[in-house]
Amino acid sequence: MNSNPPASPRPRIRNIGIGDLLHYRLPLAGIVSILHRISGLLMFLLLPLLLWLFEASLSSERSFEQFQDLAHNFFVRLVLLALGWALLHHLCAGLRFLLLDLHWGTERLAAQRSARVVLFVSVPLALLFGLYLFGAF
What we know:
The protein is 70% helix and 0% strand. It is mostly helical. It has one domain: Fumarate reductase/succinate dehydrogenase, transmembrane subunit (3 helical TM bundles of succinate and fumarate reductases), CATH 1.20.1300.10.
């Protein structure tokens, strides 16, 4: 006679679909990870523009003045703000991931806390950069 109780059915594990994304709650660490990837992609895509602007600003005094005039355009300031956010978030999240690679803060609560710190540091820094960029100080 078998003394083992009947095995409970295994839970059904499936991949989430596009329709499930609206109902899926990503943990904060996952959001920080996705934003890290987005910020890296944004910096990579804007690198040719930045290099061209840098080269143009150094070629002559006149081109530097043209660059300064261009930087007063609202759309250009939005692009610079996005780039500033990308740089600041990528730096903060990159430091977090470096510490995780060194096996510091890999416990669940420490990882959640470090993800919160990344957002609480990078977002205000980006807001300060935006205020500076749009002339608040």
